[in-house]
UniProtKB/TrEMBL annotation:
Protein name: gibberellin 3beta-dioxygenase
Pfam families cross-referenced by the UniProt entry: 2OG-FeII_Oxy (PF03171), DIOX_N (PF14226)
Domain of life: Eukaryota
Pathway the protein takes part in: Plant hormone biosynthesis; gibberellin biosynthesis; Hormone biosynthesis
The organism of origin for this protein: Vigna radiata var. radiata (Mung bean)
Amino acid sequence: MPSLSEIYRAHPVHVQHKHPDLNSLQELPESYTWTQHQDQTNNNSTLNHTVPVIDLNDPNASNLIGHACRTWGVYQVLNHGVPITLLHDIQHLGETLFSLPSHHKHRAARSPDGVDGYGLARISSFFPKLMWSEGFTIVGSPLERFRQLWPQDYHRYCDIVMQYDETMKKLAEKLMWLMLESLGIIEEDLKWAGAKGEFKKTCAALQLNSYPICPDPDRAMGLAAHTDSTLLTILYQNNISGLQVERKGSGWVTVAPVNGGLVVNVGDLMQILSNGLYRSVLHRVLVNRVKQRLSVAYLCGPPANVEICPHEKLVGPNEPRLYKSVTWNEYLGTKAKHFNKALSKVRVSGSMSEEVIS
Ligand SMILES: O=C(O)CCC(=O)C(=O)O
Ligand SMILES: [Fe+2]
């Protein structure tokens, strides 16, 4: 079975790798100048315009999550069981990593056909302008990469990543079942989840993102609008606003950080599995001139070669099947080619397409 790294290697994305040290720039270079976008942000913070915050100890959590996935494609969770100390540790790791000198970070640069390491966002290749951010991707063991960054004390940082990865895997399993339960799908309905429904063979990647202080935030873009190619993504943001999600009819809505909370995005593969009942959320990140923003995304997908298709329980005479079967491997290939149009490319022909991406 191919690993996630092998899959990415098969679908190289060509991203310009030489870029200036963003921390040293006093002005926004032309190559980073996007058109005005702040005016498209919806500042109305009434209840309907706030991303749902769900307490996982609530006995009704599954229904609340299901409702959030249908209407928003994103929610935040509290009482998720991830120790706050671990969140602080991973945040500290990210801060330390991104504050290394530029030439030092480039020692661990992602290769053009690689997946792990330091570099610009993979989606950069789809846009004419550069994004005001830097990233570091971890797939599997971070040992090799961390040795390049911290020849002396890489062990300490490896331990944090391994612990974070393990903890997120457990949380992802819990969230998957809460999301599926609300669709009426239980453990015996999903063979690839394993005998105990543990999703043991799921593939995952960890994405650290840094958005440095920006001299002209209104014209810069931290991360351009995209959906995640995952089943679900669990995101930790360091209490600094910037993440926005698109809500149909309301425009861009800021996901206000909640103390100790984690953001959960519905990904493209979950939209397919749910036969379009759950929405893969379009999101982007804006930057600011006051504080560096950091985020850590746990990108969770199925085993690479498992066919993901609309679940049979969700398809019937009145609910036509909307998507073809795809493996994660195949879907990442489609995404590498068609980016935000990938979901409509795997849509069954003849079914009405909703995926009109702005
Ligand atoms: O930084 C964020 O809040 C979002 C990051 C993100 O969307 C991603 O890594 O895919
Ligand atoms: Fe994302």
